[in-house]
């Protein structure tokens, strides 16, 4: 993404948030494409592959479902094109959708195991990655989430302790 392109996007919106700046990240997609980070007013950031950027931005504010729909439209178009190029029939498409879902869930579940600090050997395909994670494990993580600027406890910490009978 050129500096000129980056400047053109400043002042546009991703959902309800106004774009302040755009930075090309060092990280790349698995196919080697750039990932860009949008710095938004209010301190939020959003990251997308560079080729997604034109689809998630707009000249006016919108809601997250509009951003999602705009982001998915080219993906659906490419998938339908591939289905036609491979001449898949109805049954093939059903199997393809199930296969994609299974593959994606496999990857999310495996990543979830790692995020909980568990070894990859704990990963069992098809088993809920939360199996074996206790509420105490979750609470230990939540304790380390900082309070927001207004001093509000965003973890539900007091509520969790009260619910537990303390």
In short:
The protein has 166 residues and is α+β, with helices and mostly antiparallel strands. It contains 6 helices and 5 strands, in the order H-E-E-E-E-H-E-H-H-H-H.
Number of strands: 5
Number of helices: 6
How far from one another are the termini? 54 Å
Q: What percent of residues adopt helix (DSSP H or I)?
A: 40-55%
Biggest beta-sheet profile: 5 strands, antiparallel
Biggest β-sheet: strands ordered side by side in the sheet: 4-3-2-1-5
Give me the strand/helix succession: HEEEEHEHHHH
Low-confidence stretches: none
Portion of residues in beta strands equals 15-25%
**Average pLDDT reading:** 85
What overall form do the CA principal axes indicate? flat
Considering the chains and any ligands shown, give keywords for the structure.
5-stranded antiparallel beta sheet; 5 strands; alpha+beta; 45% helix; 166 residues; single chain
Provide a descriptive summary of the structure in words:
- The chain has a domain at 1-62.
- The chain is built from six helices and five strands.
- It has helices at residues 3-9, 53-56, 64-85, 90-115, 135-142, 157-163, and strands at residues 13-14, 17-28, 34-40, 45-49, 57-58.
- It has a five-stranded antiparallel beta sheet with strand order 4-3-2-1-5.
- A hairpin with a 2-residue loop joins strand 1 (13-14) and strand 2.
- The mean pLDDT is 85.
List the helices and strands and how they pair.
Blueprint: H1 3-9, E1 13-14, E2 17-28, E3 34-40, E4 45-49, H2 53-56, E5 57-58, H3 64-85, H4 90-115, H5 135-142, H6 157-163
Antiparallel strand pairs: 1-2, 1-5, 2-3, 3-4
């Amino acid at each position: 993404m050129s500096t000129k392109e980056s400047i053109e996007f400043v002042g546009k919106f991703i959902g309800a948030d106004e774009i302040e700046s755009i930075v090309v990240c060092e990280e790349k997609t698995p196919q080697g494409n750039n990932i860009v980070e949008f710095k938004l007013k209010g301190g939020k950031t959003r990251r997308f592959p560079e080729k997604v950027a034109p689809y998630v931005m707009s000249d006016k504010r919108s809601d997250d479902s509009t951003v999602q729909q705009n982001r998915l439209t080219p993906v659906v178009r490419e998938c339908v094109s591939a289905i036609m190029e491979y001449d898949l029939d109805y049954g093939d498409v059903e199997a393809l959708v199930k296969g994609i879902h299974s593959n994606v869930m496999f990857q999310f579940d495996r990543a979830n195991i790692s995020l909980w600090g568990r070894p990859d050997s704990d990963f069992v395909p098809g088993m809920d990655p939360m199996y074996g994670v206790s509420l105490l494990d979750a609470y230990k993580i939540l304790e380390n989430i900082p309070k927001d600027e207004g001093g509000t406890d965003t973890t539900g910490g007091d509520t969790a302790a009260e619910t537990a009978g303390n």
